[in-house]
């Protein structure tokens, strides 16, 4: 079994207001080229196909056209799941017909325990889910966290393991200790949403989606593929691409890079330099540019003049402020809502939370996430 | 060839704020029962499957579940088109897989000229379209109205006619001279959207969608099926159901009624009578009720008291007003935007429109409709 692992397409996503559809179309076409060149048996998409639960028609058309080409024309089997950005019901419409041509689009938690057997491999397709789904499915009120849920899920999956076969899990969640990027959904509740990597040990490979950096996790049998293109300035130095996973002899992993249609780049220069053909002909003016301006004076109509040369400016910052101090780039910090609430409580009532209060807070935050 | 003809499901539509999903589910289940009892070869759905271009997930789930049952489980071939309420792109996602099991969901104008041949019949599936689509397709700027478009469309379809076969057109538009109901979209541009019935002569049968009353048109070879349930008080006396169309020997048409889960009813009574068990036990209190109240005095907390007995009140009107005059039911009139604009112009500039101005107005209104 040799397959391609991708995830986090987020079709329809914008970058600082710029429509990324063309870039996404380009990168996804590259993925098909890689699949053909690498002669894979199947393509795995580990969730977040769309960026929003109600995608725009252009996004729907792009995804539908891709699947027509990949599955109906090129005959690639597809194993896909919904991520936290997808609406599972909207995405699932039609999926009962898709499976007739080996296009498996799994969006329902309760269907995750029946593996799809393909060649010598069992694929378990586990869509993104909230603990409430596991709580109801296992009829166990004790399941409050994703970790607790995953323990039950994997143990149930193991009942269906065929010792003659390899097992692959396709899933969409946060593995404890992974590194996050700026473009992922920023909500985290005191680790309640994290799954310890050890739990994934029973599988020959775990194809993960959720984090946008392919290097976010380095576990022997588990990888994030990352997104096919960069979604934020913080990803400027990340390599984007797909994993070619081969299970023929043990596990062999090969990361295939995708060259973006327009890359993200940082440029430090004076306004005069930026307008100088000698300067801008030496750089990719079509790229998404974060500009660090060396000037101190006010420049009238600056943005309009720059946009004529650089059509995709992400932002402009002055490196030399009026007070001669370098303006620091604002660091977007991951805020833990539990800590925020605790601090607020302590400041207001000048007391620490009791254990019971802390438990209430945790449960309330968890419920908030689940109903989001 | 014997098929069932239905249309204008408008899944997700509300009636005075009441969710009709349960009623729709009930009526659509009745349609399957009729299809089985009548032993039809196929089911035709002539557009407006959903009420909105972005349907709610509950509506999407209902429609998807229905098609799984009708097509995948019961194996009925389905011939469906998009109507003016449907988003053709959203609806079309997945349709390339559906056709593998004889579920044809046609949403693109340019695909309408290739008939689907089934048994001894050619089905032409023409989705709802605006004249601009025909203008572009035929590369003819002279096509400004639906009538002009339909002349070209039908003439092109005739090129594909097989004289050995019967021809059925499935379409969604307004046939000139048909009777409208209150629940249809209220926009009409000086007859520009009407197709003369004579144009439809080449077909053995035309399965129409758009108007919600099955009796809206009585043409030998063409019928509206009407909606499966009532969508407005004005439809109170309309029979709802589906046509069973048989082309074995000439054309035979049989209208099969659907009994609604909750009907629309008018009740005239005093408040005292309405609260009297003897009165309300004799009527279907679960129905959608338009109440005509005989009282003159102010009744505090009236609605809350009535809702406890009658859960689906559409409206309450007093038949005896304070001035002893009977309050007339407000008649919703079809306003012709062209006439409105002409009147406004005449009032403002105290001149009549010139021919040229009138043409501009007509074209502008047409474009407005097309871009809606």
Polypeptide structure, described:
Chains A, B: Belongs to the SbcD family. Chains A, B: It comes from Candidatus Enterococcus wittei. Chains A, B: Keywords: DNA recombination, DNA replication, Endonuclease, Exonuclease, Hydrolase, Nuclease. Chains A, B: It holds the Pfam family Metallophos. Chains A, B: Heterodimer of SbcC and SbcD. Two copies of one chain form a homodimer. Chain A has 372 residues and is α/β, with parallel strands linked by helices. Chain A has three domains: 1-255, Metallo-dependent phosphatases (Purple Acid Phosphatase, chain A, domain 2, 4-Layer Sandwich), CATH 3.60.21; 262-316, no CATH class; 335-369, no CATH class. In chain A, 30% of the residues lie in helices and 21% in strands. Chain A is built from eleven helices and 18 strands. Chain A has helices spanning 21-37, 57-73, 88-92, 95-98, 131-137, 146-159, 271-274, 277-280, 302-309, 337-349, 355-371; strands at residues 2-6, 14-15, 18-19, 42-46, 78-81, 103-106, 116-118, 121-125, 166-172, 174-175, 194-195, 205-209, 222-224, 241-246, 252-257, 264-269, 288-293, 313-318. In chain A, the strands form five sheets. A six-stranded mixed β-sheet of chain A has the order 6-5-4-1-14-15, covered by helices on one side. In chain A, α1 (21-37) runs parallel beside α2 (57-73) and α10 packs across α11. Chain A is globular, with a radius of gyration of 23 Å. Mean pLDDT of chain A is 90; it is low at 322-334. The interface between A and B is medium-sized, with 21 and 21 residues.
């Amino acid at each position: 079994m040799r397959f391609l692992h991708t995830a986090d397409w987020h079709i329809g996503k914008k970058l600082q207001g710029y429509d990324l559809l063309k870039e996404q179309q380009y990168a996804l076409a590259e993925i098909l080229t890689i699949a053909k060149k690498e002669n894979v048996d199947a393509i795995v998409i580990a969730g977040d196909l769309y960026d929003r639960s109600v995608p725009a028609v252009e996004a729907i058309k792009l995804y539908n056209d891709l699947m027509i080409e990949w599955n109906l024309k090129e005959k690639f089997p597809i194993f896909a799941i919904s991520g936290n950005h997808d609406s599972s019901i909207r995405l699932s419409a039609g999926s009962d017909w898709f499976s007739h041509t080996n296009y498996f689009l799994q969006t329902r938690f309760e269907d995750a325990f029946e593996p799809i057997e393909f060649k010598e491999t069992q694929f378990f397709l586990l869509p993104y889910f909230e603990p409430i789904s596991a709580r109801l499915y296992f009829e166990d009120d004790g399941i409050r966290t994703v970790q607790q849920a995953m323990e039950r899920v994997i143990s149930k999956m193991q009942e269906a393991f065929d010792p003659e076969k390899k097992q692959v899990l396709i899933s969409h969640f946060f593995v404890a200790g992974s590194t996050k990027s700026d473009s992922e959904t920023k909500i985290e509740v005191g680790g309640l949403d994290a799954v310890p990597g050890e739990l994934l040990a029973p599988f020959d490979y775990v194809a993960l989606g959720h984090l946008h950096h392919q290097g976010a996790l380095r576990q022997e049998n588990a990888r994030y593929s990352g997104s096919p293109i960069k979604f934020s300035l913080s990803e400027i130095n990340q390599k984007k691409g797909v994993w070619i996973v081969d299970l023929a002899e043990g596990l062999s992993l090969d990361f295939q890079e995708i060259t973006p249609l327009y890359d993200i780049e940082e440029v430090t220069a004076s306004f005069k330099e930026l307008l100088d053909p000698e300067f801008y002909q030496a750089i990719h003016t079509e790229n998404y540019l974060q500009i660090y301006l060396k000037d101190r004076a006010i420049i009238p109509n600056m943005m309009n003049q720059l946009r004529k040369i650089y059509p995709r400016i992400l932002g402009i910052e002055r490196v030399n402020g009026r007070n001669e101090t370098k303006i620091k780039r604002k660091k977007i910090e991951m805020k833990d809502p539990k800590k925020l609430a605790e601090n607020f409580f302590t400041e207001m009532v000048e007391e620490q939370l009791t254990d019971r209060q802390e438990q209430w807070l945790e449960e309330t935050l968890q419920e908030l996430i689940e109903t989001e």
